[in-house]
Write a structure and sequence with these properties.
CATH class of one domain: Alpha Beta
Strand content: 15-25%
Low-confidence stretches: 359-367, 490-506
Radius of gyration: 23 Å
Mean pLDDT: 88
Distance between the termini: 64 Å
CATH architecture of one domain: 3-Layer(bba) Sandwich
Shape: globular
Largest sheet: 7 strands, mixed
Helix content: 25-40%
Length: 506
């Protein structure tokens, strides 16, 4: 294994590891730490700087931290909220992992104290959390390679994953790492919506997984939006619970909850500007806001806005598959993805089993001009973020957006191979964004109902037949199938109902 200095000085670096983790956000850091603690030789590569890149470093992070006696009720509540697409085994396992591992942060993080004990159920400040995780990962012996984006997976002749390769953004040149196991932890994508911290999240891991033969689940649940000041990328939803909203005509919008209020704001925004004043926030909460979410106030104060007295314009920023639930379909409890040697963790993986609806390839990077690439990125962002296309969905609108992205994909696959440099990386990101957008749109077209965050104006009711997962796969040709959630499969089989595929005609 070369030293970190040798790695910095070489034009190309060949590496070996027991486990290669791609992505340095929260999921990647925990995955690398766990693998190292189990004795593996681990390398972590990050497109940015592990500890500051990704959405965790700009956010407050909550955990599913519940004592055993409280879990059954929580599972029942979240199953209902998730459109009956969850898997209780996954939910219980997730809560148990959080229960066991979160206390490890006690020496590093000043938890608030309740009844004389650390209140670990509270939100953890993202910047501090990620600084701690980077230090823990390094102390565990993991080699961290910052600014080393992965661009493709390496495969054995039998199709199993042998490692990955990529480029070095700062030193120049390329890298390749042979590994017994590769963990994708590249995060979700907000399709360049200007969501704070998400600009680097361009579905790179999704594209690599698809090229290796993995499929996706729940990609239609990618239409979660967050209220933000119109001039800011600061997306902290909590304070907006206490707002008085008005449409472009000055009429008050009756905001009672985000579930009801967000679609109402969306429809109003299609007509014109929407404003809010946070005049309903209790005084005690106002006093704590600067400590709990200090970044929320900064963009407003810089504009001379007192958010508790002044009306200011707001927008909705799409969070794509970050706060949505779709991603790489998991094939087993160890986060396998159905391709030997490949695993997924965090937002790149489908969270459908946990939250339901309520977060060698036939195409590669291609040599387009810088202007072409920026135009493609902008087009994908519009088709996957415009409120009237992605939040207020219709079958006709989804088909129109899909036709646009299909044309973009045709442009990409007709070009030459991109270089192993920054321009090549931008082309690769564009390909990943288009691919992910096509999976989202195909999934949303297939789910001809409204469930969870997926709302079809032309199919506003929930259809019990669609208590099924929408599975998508493929690149040039996208395949879509429907399969029942596991807890419904046995019951449907006993009743003689179809388990997948087309609805039986009456």
């Amino acid at each position: 294994m070369p030293t970190e200095k040798e790695i910095r000085l070489a034009d190309h670096v060949d590496l070996t590891a027991g486990v290669l983790v791609i992505g340095g956000g929260l999921a990647g850091a925990w995955a690398a730490l766990s693998a190292a603690q189990h004795g593996a030789d681990v390398i972590l590569v990050d497109k940015g700087y592990c500890g500051t890149s990704g959405v965790t470093a700009t956010a407050g992070v909550g955990h599913w931290y519940l004592p055993p006696e409280a879990r059954a009720a929580e599972v029942a509540a979240r199953t209902s909220a998730g459109g009956d697409l969850t898997e209780p085994d996954w939910m219980y396992r997730t809560m148990e992992v959080a229960w066991q591992r979160l206390p490890e942060l006690d020496p590093y993080y000043p938890w608030p104290v309740r009844d004389g004990r650390p209140n670990r159920a509270t939100s953890v400040r993202g910047p501090e959390y990620m600084r701690v995780m980077r230090a823990r990962v390094r102390r565990a012996g993991v080699t961290i390679l910052d600014h080393h984006p992965a661009t493709e997976l390496l495969l054995h002749g039998d199709g199993s994953v042998a490692g990955a390769s990529g480029i070095r953004l700062q030193q120049g040149g390329t890298w390749a790492c042979r590994a017994s196991a590769v963990i994708l932890a590249t995060g979700g994508t907000a399709f360049l919506s200007r969501l704070l911290g998400a600009n680097n999240n361009t579905a790179d891991g999704h594209l690599m997984a698809a090229e290796a033969g993995a499929g996706f689940s729940g990609m239609e649940f990618s239409c979660f939006y967050t209220v933000a000041a119109a001039h800011s990328t600061m997306t902290r939803a909590f304070p907006f619970m206490y707002g008085t909203y008005r449409d472009c005509d000055g009429n008050e919008l009756p905001f009672k909850s985000f579930q009801i209020g967000l679609p109402m704001i969306a429809r109003a925004l299609v007509r014109g500007p929407v404003t809010v004043v946070l005049d309903q926030m209790p005084l005690r909460t106002r006093e704590r806001l600067a400590h709990v979410q200090p970044n929320f106030l900064l963009p407003l104060l810089r504009k001379g806005i007192d958010p508790f007295k002044d009306q200011f314009p707001v927008t909705l920023r799409g969070e794509g598959t970050i706060r949505g639930t779709g991603g790489i379909a998991l094939a087993g409890p160890e986060c396998q993805v159905g391709v030997e040697g490949l695993y997924a963790a965090g937002d790149v993986a489908s969270r459908e089993p946990i939250v339901g609806a309520a977060s060698t390839s036939d195409a590669g990077p291609h040599a387009l001009t810088a202007g072409d690439i920026e135009a493609i990125r902008g087009t994908v962002s519009r088709e996957l973020n415009d409120i009237d296309k992605n939040m207020l969905r219709t079958g006709d609108g989804l088909h129109r957006s899909l036709a646009v992205l299909d044309d973009l994909w045709t442009q990409l696959v007709s070009q030459g191979t991109g270089a192993a440099d920054r321009d090549g990386l931008r082309a690769r990101e564009a390909a990943a964004l288009v691919a992910a957008g096509r999976w989202v749109l195909n999934s949303a077209i297939a789910r001809e109902e409204s469930r969870g965050m997926h709302h079809r104006i032309d199919a506003p009711d929930r259809d019990p037949w669609f208590t099924r997962r929408v599975i998508t796969s493929g690149l040039t040709t996208v395949l879509t199938t429907l399969a029942p959630a596991a807890q419904h499969q046995a019951a449907e089989h006993q009743a003689g109902k179809p388990l997948a595929g087309e609805r039986v005609a009456s």
